[in-house]
Amino acid sequence: MKRCTKCVTPETHETIMFDEMGVCSVCKQLEYKQTKINWDQRKKEFSELIKSFKGERTYDCVVPFSGGKDSSFILHSVVTEFKLKPLVVCFNHGFFRRNNRRNARLLIEKLGVDYLEYRPNHQLIKALMKESLVRKGDFCWHCHVGICTVPVHIAINFNVPLIVWGEPPSEYTSYYSYDEVFENNERRFNMFAHLGITAQDMIGMLGDKFSNKDFELLFYPSRSEIRKIGLKSAYLGHYIPWNVRSQVQILQKEYNWKLDKIEGIPPEYGYEKNECALQGCRDYLKFIKRGYARTSHLASIDIRNGRMGHEEAMELVKKYEGRRPQSLRILLETLKITEEEFMKIALEHMISPYKHDSSKTEEGEDIADIKEWEVI
Question: Which domains does the chain have, with CATH numbers?
Answer without folding.
Answer: 1-13+259-364 (no CATH), 37-239 (3.40.50)
